[in-house]
Amino acid sequence: MQQQIYQLVSSNALYSKIILLLFVVMCVAKRSSSFDYFKEKPSFMKTCKLSQPDLTKCSTEAIQKMIKEIIKGVPEFRDVIGSLDPLVLKDIAFKQDGAEAVNIRIGLSTVIVEDISKVQVLESRVQRNDFSFLLKLRMPELRLTGHYKLDGRILLLSLKAEEDVYITTLIKTDLFARDGYTFYNVTKVQNDINIGRLKGDFDNLFGGRNKELERSILTSINENWREFFEVLRPSTTNVVDQIIFDLLHKICLLIPAKYFLEDIPTPKQLHENISSNTL
């Protein structure tokens, strides 16, 4: 009897070890086959040179082409950042405190941003001192829908830019080396947003109890949308900064910097140049 119990325990222990071994092998295989970064230049990348006279023109065309292809759905990007049009965000919090203005707290969930695919890159200027970028973008259309909570009810908010949206984005970067490649490390993003006209719609604002008041408030907001936007500009800019920072940080970790700029220096060369210029 004791021998049978021993054999049963030994058999179960061996079975558990086999299952554990198979699990480890599967995890290692999955990890080894996962995409790390582009070790060869992808076909959608246009490479420029720091030494070329028309660097800004080349960079503008290159960034426009890259954005277009990423939005269309490059698998390697989609696995990391998901879809860009529509762009789905789980939660957005607008927080703003002011000595003169009323404190503002707005929380949105399941936010969907559409028409990003229509973005136009007006200019992409490379900063030759640290290889950061200054982007000027035009968005002829932009729509946003999201849910917000009021008095325990989940309501729908819809915003639509009825005229062009212009965004100027400063992207500050450092360079770092990995596996013999130089990569961009996005350290800071600053946006300046200018909207031609914005129209909003609030679904079921008072639970259907006062449609007239609901229409009156909505009309007032849409007629004075610019004043409302200026009040919310600091918090709106902070939210956009964080969203774009997260996207660019992930994208730049997938693309070696030489696919953007063929003659970009290594981090060591950049540091040596900075040191020699300060002497």
Automatic annotation (TrEMBL):
Organism encoding this protein: Glossina austeni
The organism's taxonomic lineage, starting at the top: Eukaryota, Metazoa, Ecdysozoa, Arthropoda, Hexapoda
Listed InterPro entries: Haemolymph_juvenile_hormone-bd (IPR010562), To_sf (IPR038606)
Record-stated family: Belongs to the TO family.
Gene Ontology process terms (BP): circadian rhythm
Pfam families: JHBP (PF06585)
Transmembrane portions of the chain: 12-29
Gene3D superfamilies reported for this sequence: Haemolymph juvenile hormone binding protein (3.15.10.30)
Keywords annotated in UniProt: Biological rhythms, Membrane, Signal, Transmembrane, Transmembrane helix
Name of the protein: Uncharacterized protein
Cellular component GO terms held in the UniProt record: extracellular space
